[in-house]
Amino acid sequence: MPPWLKRSIGAAGRKGFVERELSIDNLHTVCVEARCPNRGECFGRGTATFLILGSGCTRHCAFCHVRHDAPQPLDLEEPENLLRAVKHLGLSYVVITSVTRDDLADGGAGQYARSIRLLKENIPEIRVEVLIPDLQGDRKALFSVLKSLPDVLNHNLETVPRLYSSIRPQADYQRSLLVLSNTAEYNSDIFRKSGLMVGLGEREDEVFSVMTDLLHAGCQMLTIGQYLQPSPEQVPVREFISPEQFAKYSETGKKWGFLEVFAGPYVRSSYRADEIAGRIS
Questions:
Q1: Which domain holds residue 53?
Q2: Which of 72, 106, 62 is nearest to 51 (CA)?
Q3: CB 274 within 8 A of CB 152
Q4: Using CA atoms, how far apart are residues 154 and 24, in angstroms rounded to an integer?
Q5: Cβ(147)–Cβ(187) below 8 Å
Q6: How many domains would you assign to the chain?
Q7: How many CA atoms lie within 13 A of 68 on its CB side?
Q8: CB atoms within 10 A of CB 233
Q9: How would DSSP label each residue in 215-280?
Q10: Dihedral-angle region of residue 172 (phi above 0 means left; psi in -120 to 50 means alpha; beta otherwise)
């Protein structure tokens, strides 16, 4: 790997405490399931991105380490377990994401809504960011999530349209843009966020085109990070993007109108999400 991707191992901090808490409450995290390279740092800081609706995904994206598996029954105690973990960890900002559940009539929107409401009712000062799947374009399902008033609605485009057939074969680029534009239409006070991976074979002009589409869809925050192959089963890295190129994406995006563009080799969609949200609110 290039030198800018080499970094020292951080201090353990609260890592053990976070791992024990997640185990006690039978909770999953995208940090572990997706083999995120930042999981040690985030656990050390005492935070994690919670993964609801089980740990098996009904889709099989070529970049993702979350396992493709048969759907599991919904854990009706999951929202309560999530609330308990958030309280024990002392979090003031929570990121909730999920596997994609195309087998469910609402795509899991109800579980998102219940989780958000429970957190807001019991911890009034909490701020909640949700990173949701496309819910198969179901506006009613999306609006049920938005009705519970998350502070940030995040939906990742992941890559450029040309690569969807090989990287996200069960997703649809325009449908994902509609998640963001429908959110802006429903409640413009909810911040809209999206994320991209680079290094999959995209061109610079394609990334800029996606950024333009996101702005037109009402997206306000964008994360851009280097794709790193989590295991030999996922697609290989095509290119390592330089820090200078990440800086160019960030500077251009802010100039064009994004409230925040967080771009860098180890940036992920929920990485330091509390800091990003704090800079725009």
A1: 3-280
A2: 72
A3: no
A4: 28
A5: no
A6: 1
A7: 9
A8: 9
A9: HHTT--EEEEEE----STTSPPP--PPPHHHHHHHHHHHHHHT-SEEEEETT--TTTTHHHHHHHH
A10: beta
Q: What is the DSSP string of 90-116?
A: T-SEEEEEE---TTSTTTTHHHHHHHH
For residue 74, what is the DSSP state? -
32-57 pLDDT, tens digit per residue, is: 888 888 888 888 877 889 999 998 99
Confidence of residue 108 (pLDDT cuts 50, 70, 90): very high
- For the stretch 183-201, pLDDT in tens is 999 999 999 999 999 999 9
| Token representation of residue 139 | 């506006």
| Structure-block tokens of residue 126 | 């909490």
Q: What angle do CA 161, 134, 63 make, to 5 degrees?
A: 55
- Helices first, then strands: H and E counts in the chain: 11, 8
Whole-model pTM: value is 0.94
Token reading at 78: 């999951």
CB 121 within 8 A of CB 99: no
Measured CA to CA in angstroms, residue 43 lies from 16, 21, 22, 92, 98 at distances of 8, 11, 11, 15, 18
Phi/psi at 134 (nearest 5 deg)? -80, -5
Tokens coding 109: 């929107």
Domain of 70, CATH number, reads 3.20.20.70
Nearest CA among 109, 125, 43 for reference residue 74:
109
- The DSSP H or E segment spanning 84 is helix 78-89
* CA 236 and chain centroid, separation: 21
